Amino acid sequence: MKDFVEFIVKHLVDKPNDVVVAEVDGERTVVFELRVGQGDMGKVIGKHGQTAKALRILIAAASAKTGKRAVLEILE
Hints:
Strand content: 25-35%
Number of strands: 3
Structural class: alpha+beta
Distance between the termini: 21 Å
Largest sheet: 3 strands, mixed
Number of helices: 3
Helix content: 25-40%
Strand order of the largest sheet: 1-2-3
């Protein structure tokens, strides 16, 4: 799942080498910490937050198969 998130975000931003995704796996929840380069935050958030919302929905849907809740944190 981490590779999936990283693949999508690297195609959205201007500085793909600055994209870092960390996965923190808990008993019931998986947290993905997405870090992007300076100036790329707007591309990941999108207009009115639509891109970030779509990413969160994709992650939640993909993680439903594992039986765990997934959370995406976007950091600069």
